[in-house]
Amino acid sequence: MTTRSRRSATDQLLPDIIPVFPLYGAVLLPRGQMPLNIFEPRYLEMVDDVLAGERIIGMIQPQDDGSDDPAPVLRTVGCAGRVTTFSETDDSRYLITLTGLARFALVDEVEGDAPYRLFRIRTDPFTADFVIQGENEVDRDDLLSAFRAYLDANDLDIDWDTILRAPTEWLVNAAAMFGPYGPAEKQALLEAPDLKTRAETVVALTEMTLARGAGHKPSLQ
Q1: Which element (helix H / strand E) includes 185?
Q2: What is the pLDDT, as a whole number, of residue 218?
């Protein structure tokens, strides 16, 4: 197995055209970290290409779980991430980590020879994503209380001292990315206008989940 890890600053604009990786039920958020197991040939080629360039991939959800559709209709908002860790397994898979940079809006698809999809994007609605802001506006006690209640209801054991020391943005975005929410709910969390709104939505969704039974996925549709 070969490994590679690189870091760089996130306070820069994204390219106008980026490759996208559609994944139903998954969202990336600024400064969030998403591990990905890449095995499809077209996405192996995509990773090869981005590693030779700016290492940026756009994560976005398809509208529906049409896993057999090679070019599904996509949601209009995603999040770009930079490949910050990379390893190649003995069976030729790539294990990468994407670290979120900023959200983007799709403009149009760009035709090309690559087997993966390229889109022109807009980032001007989301320029605030490049810096951490709004942590002081989040009701951290409410957030921690909802998190604690969910862990207790599901008999999950996590180092609570580590949670208490974690930055507020990290807590909100980790809950949004990896919480027990459906695709529509995760998209709503992605598109929340600010950290305070995202945190309030996380708390509300967690309370709905607990009220309806642990593990149930509430619906905003």
Answers
A1: helix 183-190
A2: 41
